[in-house]
Design goal:
alpha+beta; six-stranded antiparallel β-sheet; 35% helix
């Protein structure tokens, strides 16, 4: 594992609720009223990675052209540069605009269902990110080095944080 990235540490449900509550408040206090999407993305990444110890890789893939994503602001190891809509978990979420939780990425078909940018990533959650006008800005991707790190608590909080930050 790269020296600058620490291994994931899963939290129980109660610990997640507290961590997300604190992160949500910190994000709102830091970017509330700001318009710059890149600044907001960088701040969301930083604060969520700070508060949630099971976040190994966290970042945004942005809509590019008609049917492609490009890597946006992120924290962690090298991300994929381009992802076609429908390819991998991020591409599937971009195409469907529906959140997807993967308990074990290693069981997915490589190159089609999952794109392994980093073999240390073991589970992930990917969410669509919409602007206030409803247009798709991109997807928000979080990976963990542990299996089954993400659940309905993550989904609920992340959907709220992304809505409050980008769809206002």
């Amino acid at each position: 594992m790269p020296y600058f990235v620490r291994p994931s540490v899963n939290l129980n449900t109660e610990e997640k609720e507290v961590a997300y509550s604190l992160a949500h408040a910190a994000i709102a206090a830091t970017v509330g009223g700001e318009d710059n999407e890149v600044m907001k993305m960088a701040t969301v990444n930083s604060l969520l990675k700070t508060y949630l110890p099971y976040y190994y890789w966290v970042g945004f893939y942005l809509v590019h052209g008609q049917r492609q994503l490009i890597v946006g602001p992120y924290q962690g190891t090298l991300g994929c540069l381009y992802i076609d809509f429908g390819r991998g978990v991020c591409g599937a979420v971009a195409a469907s605009e529906r959140t997807k939780i993967v308990a074990d990425t290693h069981v997915l078909e490589e190159g089609k269902e999952h794109i392994a940018c980093d073999p240390n990533s073991r589970s992930e959650i990917v969410l669509p990110v919409h602007r206030a006008d409803g247009s798709l800005l991109g997807v928000f991707d979080v990976d963990s080095t542990e299996e089954a790190s993400f659940d309905a608590v993550d989904q609920r909080w992340l959907e709220q944080i992304l809505r409050d930050t980008f769809a206002v």
